[in-house]
Write a structure and sequence with these properties.
The complex is a heterodimer. Chain A is globular, with a radius of gyration of 21 Å. By secondary structure, chain A is an alpha/beta fold. In chain A, helix 1 (about 125-130) crosses helix 4 (about 180-195) and helix 3 runs parallel beside helix 5. Chain A has a 6-stranded mixed β-sheet with strand order 1-14-13-17-15-16, sandwiched between helices. Among the domains of chain A are: about 125-280, Rossmann fold (3-Layer(aba) Sandwich), CATH 3.40.50; about 375-440, no CATH class. The longest helix of chain A is centred in the C-terminal third of the chain and has 19 residues, at about 425-440. In chain A, strand 5 (about 60) and strand 6 form a beta hairpin. In chain A, about 55% of the residues are buried. Helices cover about 30% and strands about 20% of the residues of chain A. The mean pLDDT of chain A is about 90. By secondary structure, chain B is mainly α. In chain B, helix 1 runs antiparallel to helix 2 (about 45-70) and helix 1 packs parallel to helix 3 (about 80-90). Chain B is globular and about 75 Å long. The N and C termini of chain B lie far apart (about 55 Å). The chains are: A alpha/beta, B mainly alpha. Chains A and B meet through helix 6, strand 15, strand 16, helix 9 and helix 10 of A and helix 1 of B. The structure holds iron/sulfur cluster (2 copies). One iron/sulfur cluster binds near residues 378, 379, 384 and 410 of chain A.
Chain lengths: ~450, ~325
């Protein structure tokens, strides 16, 4: 039996339309729009001015604190504006607008460096560089990686888990990266093992990516430290807590972190970014993005510079098809719907999903028929129907004591509800209020 | 670029294709083999009672919602239709038409809409209708056309009591099970449905077939039906083993009366059963125990309906005390 997490989960249609499409390089955009807050935490501080010339990879916004991250220029060019534009969150955010210098060759250089296996850097320097080079969690959470890696003295830490699950339907960015950069990813894993002084790492991959499992198995036969865990296909296995439970049978305590059970989890994309930062001196200025949708002509995977407008991506795949009703930044389960195509790709953009009429609208919400389906599928053991009810009625204290804050917003409950109830919408709303109440209390 | 506006809604952006309506229709499909058997065995009577029960449930829902409550009419969701079928399945096929209509009114008006409609009712509407009729018209509700093998013209046939009725009466007169067993149909006849009883409860085989379909389609889980029947089998088995002359064997108990109909179709009603698997098991064991206690020691020969209604009342409590285990609420594995 393949491993998986025991409680809850769903099997939405996978729709991995682009898993056989190798990652292409997106043409260098004419303009990039680089938000200074692409990570969870304190926004960075802009350190360039309008009309400044910037080099590719130069820091343009400095980390604003410990839980923050540097932002680097994805192109060589000229800063034309410091402006507020709507980003993928839907809010207006401070942004550095740079016009690409079409004559500067560094913009067009190949990123395909030869594999470099020897790790020469000291652990302390590795962590510092991860901090300096703006690396954040590329799985979607965009949590600054150096924070995750800052392990307090005396903490028991024995496993590094690499998240290659990619359980969101449609997305194939991590899958392609694993197929095309497996050796680099392995070096990245060794870098982190070296930096954290641990000797066990496990790569978790769902069984719908057998080719990736095979590659890593083959590459690690003689490696006693790195193992591959083939997992059952089940959403949301890419959630950290579910993944740790699936692979190591350890349960992260309520309100706790994987570190509490001796584990650090990193996404494969993040590992690759770390590899490039350490071995090739490259800050995080581009990432793999799956541009997909059932009606798109040339759905595929792309290397995209951070700050590239989504309209560039859509044009590259043949434009928005007739009848497009929704554009999602990310996958269909947890991605955010965006209003227009001016929004730029950020460090957290794993995919752009274009949804047409037939899939875009939701059914009309009906009475809860108390079928318990939402309870059955919730991977956190919550009662979504109850939490929605409590949020709706404004009973936030009770919602808090029913563990509303532990909801990981995976959307499984809304997905299955036969009465089309907007469970997660209400739970999210309830969470924001409970969070405020909790901060007031403390 | 399309001319229609772009929708900006919160995730998730996809939905499974299950809807409550589809669930209702799946149950209706599952009930159809038993319905066909019942027409074969009871003839026209079964058809008439079922049609009247459906029509009155749907019509009362329409009239009450439209003119009394002035709320949205929900008759297209399939739930009133299903209540009608389940009500009919729990009635004798020769029940006077007007009683069927009263049953429909009680089921929809009292048990469902007065609680706030679909999803808010505590008790299974069809069962409330049935029990109301049973208490009000005990004579008509407990006389059944006796089904005679291969006789499709049973509307005018003699009426009699069900197997459970015969057993209860016999035991009260001091007969032994050996004597009684010649007066009740064989287990094989019970399995196929050539036995007296409510319109839809007699063919164990047809009901099981539909029940398996529901489990296969994941409309219901196995927990409730299996645990109800298992509890009944174990309990009646113990009594039977201790004193086989005064207690019917478990096979008779499972195959007769409303055990299978109740376990697969009435107790599993989504609205009135618990949310979690743990809760379902407690609920089902409760139904099994109460049914057997009524059958063996109560005034009525059959107790499934009462047992389900009694356990329905405990569902809110069960939901409160048998919550799913919260992830991370106790640490399962220590670092090794
Ligand atoms: S309540 Fe939260 S964690 Fe549970 S299924 Fe719904 S979104 Fe996922
Ligand atoms: S899945 Fe929907 S209908 Fe079923 S219990 Fe949850 S909220 Fe109610």
């Amino acid at each position: 039996m393949l491993k998986t997490f025991p409680k809850g989960g769903i099997h939405p249609p996978e729709n991995k339309l682009t898993s056989a499409k190798s990652i292409k390089k997106m043409p260098v955009p004419k303009m990039v729009y680089v938000p200074i807050s692409q990570h969870i935490g304190i926004p960075s501080e802009i350190i360039v001015n309008v009309k400044d010339k910037v080099e590719i990879g130069q820091v343009i916004a400095k980390s604003g604190g410990f839980v923050s991250s540097n932002v680097h220029s994805p192109v060589a060019g000229v800063v034309t504006k410091l402006d507020k534009i709507i980003d993928t969150s839907g809010y207006k955010k401070q942004c550095i607008v740079i016009r690409t210098d079409a004559k500067n060759e560094s913009n067009f250089e190949e990123i395909d460096y030869p594999l470099k296996k020897d790790i020469t850097m000291e652990p302390k320097d590795i962590l510092q560089r991860i901090n300096d080079y703006g690396i954040v969690g590329l799985g979607g959470a965009t949590f600054p990686s150096h924070v995750k890696l800052s392990v307090k003295e005396g903490t028991v830490l024995d496993h590094l888990i690499i998240n290659g699950v990619e359980c969101e339907p449609y997305l194939t960015a991590d899958h392609r990266l694993m197929l095309e950069k497996a050796e680099e990813i392995l070096v990245g894993i060794k870098i982190l093992m070296h930096a954290l002084h641990i000797d066990k790492a496990i790569i978790g991959i769902e069984n719908n990516k057998k080719d990736a499992i095979d590659i890593f198995k083959k590459l690690t036969v003689n490696d006693s430290g790195i193992k591959v865990a083939a997992l059952q296909v089940k959403y949301p296995q890419g959630g950290e807590k579910q993944l740790v439970r699936a692979i190591l049978n350890r349960e992260v305590p309520k309100n706790g972190l994987p570190l509490d059970v001796g584990v650090i989890v990193h996404n494969v994309g993040t590992i690759f970014a770390i590899y490039q930062a350490i071995q090739h001196n490259k800050p995080l200025i581009e990432r793999v993005v799956t541009v997909t949708g059932k009606k798109l002509e040339n759905a595929s995977n792309y290397w995209v510079k951070i700050g590239t407008p989504i309209s560039d991506l859509v044009n590259e795949v043949g434009g928005l098809p007739e009848g497009t009703r929704k554009i999602v930044n990310g996958g269909p389960m947890m991605g955010k719907a965006i209003k227009n195509l001016d929004v730029p790709v950020t460090k957290g953009t794993s995919g752009i999903l274009v949804i047409s009429e037939d899939e875009a609208s939701r059914g009309e919400p009906k009475n809860c028929i108390r079928c318990g389906e939402c309870v059955e599928v919730c991977p956190m053991g919550l009662e979504p129907h109850l939490l929605m009810n409590l949020s709706e009625k404004g009973m936030y204290e009770k919602a808090g004591s029913e563990d509303i804050m532990t909801c990981i917003e995976c959307g499984s409950c809304s997905y299955v509800c036969p009465s089309h109830r907007p469970l997660l919408d209400y739970i999210r709303f309830g969470k924001t209020i409970v969070k405020k109440l909790n901060t007031v209390k403390n | 670029m399309s001319t229609q506006p772009i929708i900006v809604s919160a995730s998730p952006h996809v939905h499974s294709d299950r809807t409550s309506k589809k669930l209702m229709y799946d149950v209706i499909i599952a009930l159809s083999p038993a319905f066909l058997v019942s027409i074969y065995v009871f003839g026209l009577g079964a058809l008439i009672v079922t049609s009247v029960a459906i029509a009155s449930c749907v019509l009362f829902e329409y009239l009450i919602q439209k003119y009394l409550l002035k709320t949205a009419v929900t008759i297209t969701d399939g739930s009133a239709l299903l209540t009608g079928i389940l009500l009919a399945f729990n009635l004798p096929s020769n029940l006077p038409i007007w009683m069927v209509i009263v049953g429909g009114l009680v089921a929809i008006g009292v048990a469902k809409l007065s609680f706030g409609g679909l999803g808010f009712n505590i008790f299974n509407p069809a069962l409330v209708g049935r029990v109301f009729l049973l208490v009000s018209f005990p004579v008509q509700m407990t006389m059944w056309p006796t089904a005679i093998e291969n006789n499709t013209n049973v509307v005018d046939a003699v009426t009699g009591a069900t197997s459970l009725g015969v057993i209860k009466e016999g035991l009260q007169y001091g007969d032994t099970m050996t004597e009684i067993s010649s007066r009740i149909p064989s287990a094989i006849d019970m399995l196929f449905g050539f036995t007296g009883g409510s319109l839809g409860e007699m063919s164990a085989l047809a009901l099981l077939l539909g029940g398996l379909y529901l489990i296969f389609r994941k409309v219901i889980s196995w927990h409730i039906p299996v645990m109800v029947l298992m509890t009944m089998a174990v309990m009646t088995g113990v009594f039977w083993a201790l004193d086989p002359e005064h207690y019917a064997n478990p096979i008779i108990h499972i195959l007769s009366g409303g055990a299978i109909l109740g376990a697969f179709y009435m107790a599993t009603d989504l609205v009135t059963s618990p949310m979690t698997k743990k809760g379902m098991i407690i609920f089902a064991i409760g139904i099994g125990i109460i049914t057997v206690v009524i059958r063996l020691f109560g005034a009525y020969p059959e107790g499934v309906s009462f047992a389900i209604l009694i356990m329905n009342a405990f569902v809110p409590l069960i939901n409160k005390y048998f919550k799913p285990r919260r992830f991370g609420s106790k640490i399962k594995a220590k670092i090794v």
